[in-house]
Amino acid sequence: MKFDTIQLCDIDIEVIDGDRGKNYPHQDELLKTGDCLFLSAKNVTKNGFSFTEKQFITKEKDKLLNNGRLKHGDIVITTRGTVGNVALYSNEIFYDKIRINSGMLIIRCGDKIDNYYLYQVLRSKWFQNQILSIQSGSAQPQLPKSHFHRMTIPVPDVNTQHRIASILSSIDEKIVVNTAINENLEQQAQAIFKSWFVDFEPFGGVMPDDWCLGTFSDIIESTLGGDWGKETSTGNYTERVYCIRGADIPEVKAGNKGKMPTRYILPKNFKNKKLIANDIVVEISGGSPTQSTGRVAAISQSLLDRYDCGMVCTNFCRAIKPCEGYSYYTYYYWQYLYDRNVFFSYENGTTGIKNLDLSGFVETESIIIPSNKAIQEFNSLIDSFHSRIFKNGQENENIAALRDTLLPKLMNGEIDVSKVRI
Fold first, then answer.
1. Closest to 42 measured CA to CA, from 95, 74, 85
2. DSSP letter string over 185-237?
3. What is the DSSP letter of 287?
4. 224, 228, 234, 236: CA torsion to nearest 10
């Protein structure tokens, strides 16, 4: 049975803007810790919420703001820049106070709309194609609230919505579990790095005598620029490759490729710009004054084997090529410094797009260079972590593909939900 398609303005939802008044937080009012989590575009991804990077406002600042505070059960959709990312503020999210920024909308469901059903519909390819067809703004894509209201979704009766939501949530639970495991593994690996190479805990709290000080230039052989290529095959632009953007880095870190765009690039450039195992991709252009640079992703052989048409990074990133054996060490050292805002002092263009002075950072930032024996022991330990992370990420991709295949069949009534058993 095919379900009726209805405009969003005619269904039982409330669409809420964030606060845009005089009390909207300035950049210097966004803190690493605080009373209320203030969402950035990095927190709302294609796969729901991500809290690997967080910013907060104070209790006093929160009280000055009007619209934009989330309630459990709300849906968030991004409406500026990266448009159409959707996340659900479920009861499992442990932040009690969350506000959206000015580039998002809150969707709050009434009794006649199941919020999990709506969440799945909004993130579906079917709905995302609507966004692509109507979003405005050439320099910075936007989805105005008025346009969002005019978009349509299939709306079965509420009992059918509940059943569809139950089917899809049972699939998503496995993705949530795998993602939580991967985040824990990544945190464990980072903790081991800090214990060994910052606090020197296995060495009695003192740096071993056979270690020394240096810079990243001592353990990095070279860096490699990126290339966007062409959207379509024209002339010599015929080689198909996956192109990693800064926005893809969190998903690559989690062991999940995500949906990197496949683009065309000159064959002669492809050979020179091709990523290889143990390369590290770093974001060197933040995109706006409020977005920082320096995020990194490690390129594994497993990742390259699965997407064997090849990978490059965009010209807003660089590929770092560490010396043999130093890939994990460089990656986690870079993460350690990123979490401590070290890259801020190496950025320029702070009144427009932020850019990282990569050569200045690599050549001048003082680091510890351990012995070869310590590096080998660290690699052996961390390699097992990364193998598990990739395996879980690959499983998540397969599960997500199953969900995305099933969703449109449930949405259009092609599958009788009363007969589905999970």
1. 85
2. HHHHHHHHHHHHHTS-GGGTTS--TT-EEEEGGGTEEEEEE----BSS-BTTB
3. S
4. 0
* Residues paired with 311 in a beta bridge: 242
pLDDT per residue as tens digits for the range 280-320: 999 998 654 445 688 899 998 888 887 777 888 888 899 99
Give the pair of three-digit tokens for residue 79: 């409406």
- 175's enclosing H/E stretch is helix 158-197
Of all residues in the chain, what percent carry a pLDDT higher than 70?
A: 89
Residue 258 CB partners (closer than 8 Å, separation 6+): 46, 47, 248, 251, 252
Contact present, 281 and 319 (Cβ < 8 Å): yes
The residue ranges of DSSP E strands in 237-295, in sequence order, are 239-244, 262-265, 280-283
Q: Give the position of tokens 């909308």.
A: 105
Structure confidence by residue, pLDDT tens digits, 155-195 = 988 988 998 888 888 888 888 888 889 889 999 999 999 99
Whether residue 122 contacts residue 46, with contact meaning beta carbons closer than 8 Å, is answered with no
Q: Where are the alpha helices (DSSP H) in 28-144?
A: 59-64, 115-122, 125-134
What pTM did the predictor assign? 0.74
Token code pair at residue 268 = 């002669």
- Please classify residue 26 by burial: count the beta carbons closer than 10 Å to its beta carbon, then call 0-12 exposed, 13-18 middle and 19+ buried: exposed
Question: Which residue bears the tokens 């998002």?
Answer: 104
Q: What are phi and psi of 234, to 5 degrees?
A: -140, 130
Instruction: Compute the C-alpha angle 407/411/412, nearest 5°.
Output: 125
Residue 89 contacts residue 44 (beta carbons within 8 Å) = no
Asked if residue 132 lies in contact with residue 141, where contact means CB atoms within 8 angstroms, the answer is no
Nearest to 333 by CA among 294, 289, 360: 294
Beta-carbon count within 10 A of 183 CB? 16
Would you state the torsion angle of the CA atoms of residues 317, 87, 76, 282, taken in this order, to the nearest 10 degrees? -10
The residue-averaged pLDDT of 91-97 equals: 89
Identify the three-state secondary structure at position 339. Answer: helix
The candidate with the shortest Cα–Cα distance to 126, out of 300, 3, 224, 39, is 3
